[in-house]
C-alpha cells in the first residue's frame, strides 16, 4: 500500500519532505504535486521506477521522460543549451513548461528518445515540488500522472491514493492540482517548436 503524506502547500513539513526524499533514494516511485498537475517521480537512475511509470501509463519507448530540476544550474548538467535557447528558457522558468533538448552524457541512455537522443527538462513553480527537489539534491525523473484512456489527470490526492495504492509507493498531497499538463517546447533543432499547448503561455514561442 502507498503511504499518504498530507503536506502544507506553503510551508511543507521538513520531516515529511526528508522522509519522501529518502524513500526516493531507496527506489520508491512517488506521486507529487507540480504547478501544472500531479506527476509520477522516481530517482534518475531507477530502472524499476522507469519500468513502473511505463506500465502505469502504458508508454512506448518514444515517450519523452522529463527531468524535473530545482534550478537552472542543475538543468544545465543534463541538457545542451546554446545562448539563444538559454535566454528563451530562462525567461520562462520556473513555470509550467517542459523543454525538449539534446541530452548530455549525464542522462542514462534508457531515458533518451531512441533516435533524437533528447530528453525533457523543466523547473516547476511549486513550493512542495521545490522543497522535495532541494532535499533530493538531483532531478526527479518524472511523467505527468495521466492514466491510459483518460482525458484529464486526476486532481485529488486521496483519489490517486485509492486508484494507485498498489502501483506507487507514496502520494504527496498538498491540495488540488490542475488538470492541464505543461506546455511542451522542442528546442532540439535550435528553433522553438510547440509540441503541446498546455498550462504555460505559448505566445512567447510563436
Describe this structure in words.
With 206 residues, this protein is an alpha/beta fold. It has helices spanning 14-25, 47-57, 72-75, 83-90, 127-136, 157-163; strands at residues 3-6, 30-32, 39-43, 66-68, 97-102, 118-122, 140-144, 170-173, 183-186, 193-196. A hairpin with a 6-residue loop joins β2 and β3. α1 (14-25) crosses α5 (127-136). The mean pLDDT is 94. Residues 14-200 form the YrdC-like domain. InterPro entries: DHBP_synth_RibB-like_a/b_dom (IPR017945), Sua5-like_dom (IPR006070), SUA5_domain (IPR052532).
Topology:
Layout: E1 3-6, H1 14-25, E2 30-32, E3 39-43, H2 47-57, E4 66-68, H3 72-75, H4 83-90, E5 97-102, E6 118-122, H5 127-136, E7 140-144, H6 157-163, E8 170-173, E9 183-186, E10 193-196
Parallel strand pairs: 1-8, 2-8, 4-6, 5-9
Antiparallel strand pairs: 2-3, 3-7, 4-7, 5-6, 9-10
Helix pairs in contact: 1-5
The fraction of residues assigned to DSSP E strands is 15-25%
Query: How are the strands of the biggest sheet laid out side by side?
Result: 1-8-2-3-7-4-6-5-9-10
On the 0-100 scale, what is the average pLDDT? 94
Please summarize the sheet with the most strands. Answer: 10 strands, mixed
Amino acid at each position: 500500500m502507498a503511504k499518504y503524506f498530507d503536506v502544507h502547500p506553503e510551508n511543507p513539513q521538513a520531516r515529511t519532505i526528508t522522509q519522501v526524499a529518502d524513500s526516493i533514494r531507496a527506489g520508491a516511485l512517488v506521486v507529487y504535486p507540480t504547478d501544472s498537475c500531479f506527476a509520477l517521480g522516481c530517482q534518475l537512475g531507477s530502472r524499476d521506477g522507469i519500468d513502473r511509470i511505463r506500465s502505469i501509463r502504458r508508454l512506448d519507448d518514444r515517450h519523452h521522460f522529463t527531468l524535473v530540476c530545482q534550478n537552472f544550474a542543475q538543468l544545465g548538467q543534463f541538457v545542451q543549451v546554446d545562448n539563444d535557447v538559454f535566454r528563451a528558457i530562462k525567461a520562462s522558468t520556473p513555470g509550467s513548461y517542459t523543454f525538449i533538448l539534446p541530452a548530455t552524457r549525464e542522462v542514462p541512455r534508457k531515458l533518451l528518445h531512441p533516435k533524437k537522443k533528447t530528453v525533457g527538462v523543466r523547473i516547476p513553480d511549486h513550493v512542495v515540488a521545490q522543497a522535495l527537489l532541494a532535499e533530493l539534491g538531483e532531478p526527479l525523473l518524472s511523467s505527468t500522472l495521466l492514466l491510459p484512456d483518460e482525458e484529464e489527470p486526476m486532481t485529488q490526492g486521496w483519489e490517486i491514493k485509492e486508484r494507485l495504492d498498489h502501483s506507487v509507493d507514496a502520494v504527496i498531497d498538498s491540495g488540488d492540482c490542475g488538470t492541464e499538463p505543461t506546455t511542451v517546447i522542442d528546442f532540439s533543432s535550435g528553433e522553438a517548436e510547440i509540441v503541446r499547448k498546455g498550462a504555460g503561455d505559448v505566445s512567447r514561442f510563436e
